Amino acid sequence: MSEVITEKEQATALMDKYVDLQRIKTAPDRDSEIEYQIRITKAKLEALGIVTEKLDK
């Protein structure tokens, strides 16, 4: 069974991505902002049951 994402959900996901990129672009300390974004995204993925260990570099 495949899950279908609605157009509204796609738009919301893209808006979130855009905001994240803008935050990184304007952050006084980009490395810290990138690490923050990674932690938040990892927590969201893990909450959905997605293992992230193999994605880490």
Q: What this model shows, in words?
A:
By secondary structure, this protein is mainly α. Helices cover 67% and strands 0% of the residues. The protein is built from two helices and no strands. The N and C termini lie far apart (32 Å). The mean pLDDT is 93.
Total helical segments: 2
Distance between the termini: 32 Å
Which secondary-structure class do the elements indicate? mainly alpha
Q: What Rg do the Cα atoms give?
A: 14 Å
Quaternary state, please?
single chain
Let me know the largest β-sheet: none
Structural key phrases:
57 residues; mainly alpha; 2 helices; flat
Helices, strands, pairings?
Blueprint: H1 7-26, H2 30-47
In short:
The chain is mostly helical and 57 residues long. It has helices spanning 7-26, 30-47.
